[in-house]
What we know:
about 250 residues; alpha/beta; TIM Barrel
Amino acid sequence: MISGHPIIVANWKMNTSLADAIIIASSVRKALEEMHHVEVVLCPEYIWLYPVKEELSKFPLSNLKIGAQNISQFDNGSYTGEVSAQMIKNLVQFVILGHSERVDNFGEDEETTNKKIKLALDHGIHPIVCVGERTKSETSVTFVINKLKRILKSISNEEYQNVLIAYEPVWAIGTDKEAESDYVDEVAKKIKEKLSDDLKILYGGSVSSDNASNYLTHRHVDGLLVGRASLKTREFIEICSLANGGV
């Protein structure tokens, strides 16, 4: 089960060295010793999953978890270079799926994301499903909901409680144009109304310590997916602290 506390997910993408990964992970772990009302998920690159898990296992915290940034749409077989949910299920509790960078750079479609979601759930991994519009318009919310319905096809209502949705408007990713918090809350509200109130909704898109509280204070936003700021240890810890105090 996913906790009822705010959830802060760090997506390091393809940016850290082993030394970076260990330093960030150990620093976050130490800071979280004093935070009991926030759940944090660190998502390192594949190659650092085991070392980071080893580092965190020295002083384990129940509110600090590890996630992967992707999994294969296949469970096993002759798929050179692929990493399956089955292979990492003992290393991670979460996995980011459907990120716009996977769509843009690797041509992943909704059917592929759907397959990955099912495999993650089959192996006890919580999928963090990314969705968002490319341009903001009057039909953005409808677009997002319809896209989610396709991506979550054949996922049962019971399984929704193990799924997180990361609302990431593509126009706000990696820019200084974060979405307005009231708008994000309205999108999150509509998603829960149309799909399931059991879904946890995160916001991602140029999240920083300067704007994190704007989103966390809204009732329908359950947490944040943090990109660039998660690589800056002090700033990420500040975001976690804001989430911890926002309960």
